[in-house]
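Retro notes (design track)

What went well: tokenization of the new backbones is finally stable.
What didn't: we kept losing track of which sequence belonged to which structure.
Fix going forward: every design gets posted as structure first, then sequence, in one message. First example under the new rule, 251 residues:
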């Protein structure tokens, strides 16, 4: 019978083939380390801008401070996915004094002023009130350079709705506004003369109304003589009819 050789040799002596471990390309590791998430030290952009604060998925998110190199402007406050969002303050660098001048402090949304905030204009005027999409909208108070103050409703950066305008000499208008002009029913008080005009305005012009003495005895510069008494049988009815015609023509 044929003889077979034994196969009981030590298998531990068999050669072992080792395959090299698959490694990700180096740039994968570099990219992982470069990902910004959480609180980080100051990060500089290619254009020289710098940001110090919180990140999420490589975007400014949370609390942080941004400085723009080109203008020197600085913003400190809330961020959301790379845009100013939440409460924050924006200031610019005065080229002469080299000191920061506050421009806006308040609420932001999607990188624009939105909600309540205080804004300072270059000419010294300032506005405190509500904003929407970067424009004055809602209820707010505007202090003008000449000393006038408007307080009331705003829409797309202009007085619109009901509001009060106080002039430096003490006179004031209370009533309707449209596109930044007196429009609709309103009252104009003249405490300096002791008179009151109540009527209808169209594009800043009074179209009809009733002028009467109002506090004339205490006025600093009253008219030479009081206004004559109105002889109309129903002056209130005449004014109401004029208002109705105005409303019909502007529907």
């Amino acid at each position: 019978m044929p003889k077979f050789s034994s196969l009981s040799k030590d298998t531990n002596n068999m050669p072992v083939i080792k395959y090299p471990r698959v490694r990700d390309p180096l740039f994968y590791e570099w990219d992982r380390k470069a990902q910004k998430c959480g609180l980080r030290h100051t990060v500089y952009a290619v254009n020289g801008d710098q940001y110090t604060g919180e990140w999420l998925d490589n975007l400014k998110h949370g609390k942080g401070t941004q400085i723009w190199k080109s203008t020197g402007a600085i913003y400190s406050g809330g961020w959301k996915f790379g845009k100013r969002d939440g409460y924050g303050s924006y200031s610019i660098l005065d080229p002469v004094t080299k000191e920061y001048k506050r421009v806006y402090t308040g609420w932001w949304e999607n990188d624009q002023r939105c909600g309540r905030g205080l804004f300072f204009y270059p000419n010294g005027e300032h506005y405190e009130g509500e904003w929407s999409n970067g424009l004055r909208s809602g209820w707010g108070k505007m202090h003008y350079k000449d000393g006038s103050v408007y307080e009331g409703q705003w829409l797309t950066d202009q007085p619109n709705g009901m509001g009060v305008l106080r002039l430096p000499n003490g006179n004031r208008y209370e009533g309707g506004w449209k596109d930044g002009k007196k429009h609709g029913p309103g009252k104009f008080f003249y405490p300096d003369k002791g008179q009151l005009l109540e009527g209808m305005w169209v594009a800043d012009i009074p179209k009809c109304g009733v002028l009467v003495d109002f506090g004339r005895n205490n006025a600093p510069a009253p008219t030479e003589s009081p206004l004559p008494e109105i002889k109309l049988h129903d002056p209130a009815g005449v004014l109401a009819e004029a208002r109705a015609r105005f409303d019909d023509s502007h529907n």
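Added context from the reviewer: Residues 235-249 form the longest helix (15 residues).
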